[in-house]
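Sample A.
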Amino acid sequence: MNRTRQISLVGLAFASSIACASVDVSVGASAPTYGTTLNFDEAGGPTGSGIANDSWSGIGVSSLYGLDGNTFVDNLNATPGFGWLPNNNVMVGNFGVAIEFDTDVTEFSAQVWDNAGPADFISGGMIAVAEKDGVEVGSFFWEFPIYGPGGDNWFNFTTSGGDSFDRVAFVGFAFVSPQTIIDNISFNTVPVPGTASLLGCGLLTLSRRRRR
């Protein structure tokens, strides 16, 4: 085999691994709702500015925060200029929003607005990224983010082949006052190993006790 042929095969193998990536990120007019949900309207949920990043750890979100270090939640529908937002609480993150999970996630969806505007050679556009153990495993660059009524603003992350991720980030590239707004988060987590077998053992023990 000559050297040129060897390089071609290596390149083909690398290209195949990218094409077969099993974390897919898409954007559309709607997205599925998964098992665990967070819409910021839950009873007793925090509102206002400076909210602790771990405020939603009880549902498996170890950290949720704006990339400027401030986590802000409120209903902005009555605020001048934001009447196009739904009449409920949303989370705002200047420079973007990041979500970290207690355990690996297999599916994720959320409604996201960003003021980055159309991408050009110096700014604009927004990227949605899925990571696992600090490594990017899926992404989607959105050239025309929605910051107003209508349009495609639902992101959906799905996996296959047993893959998963543990962090999601939305980063807008607005040149001035970048702002990302997120709502209606939902996700599915990877089942804890051994849970099913432990449940089976418990049922077996119960069955044995009843037979005595």
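Sample B, a different protein:
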Amino acid sequence: ADLNFITAGPPGFQFADAKVGTGSPATKGQAVAIDYVMSTSGARYGAKIDSTVDRQAPYKWTLGDGSTIEGLELAILGGDGVPPMLPGGVRRVIVPSELAYAELARPNKNNLQVQDCSTGRGPIPPNEPQKGGDMGAGEFQRFKNIYCNANRPYQPDLVLDVKLFGKRTVD
């Protein structure tokens, strides 16, 4: 199915709902959990970088706590012309670098090009092998090369396919 992207919010931010959820939108201060597939708008469009689905580890945080990139918070909370996501919804967002990982790619105070890419606003792929037989943290290395590299002339847009979980009920 073709997605119809809507441009809203800060410059460069776009979204398309593959599935609109139901229920009440999340609010600041609320804990949320999502599954995401992270890819890039770079040269190999659609090149998958990371997926919480693949490693069966949803990304969780408290909305507005500063731990998560602005573009993902905007995708969930809405605002500035972007409607909030509803539980169970699936949305593809195109996030410009200023709302994603721009600060990770700035040279550090000593002007060294060696970056600590495992700190900063998430989501950041894990920096260790995810299952037996893995050759290393390939997802983290791809992420680091694209979004945490002060030698790159620009950062491509971040593409996230986000599924917002609803509140889980206990049987």
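Observation for Sample B: DSSP finds three helices and seven strands in the chain.
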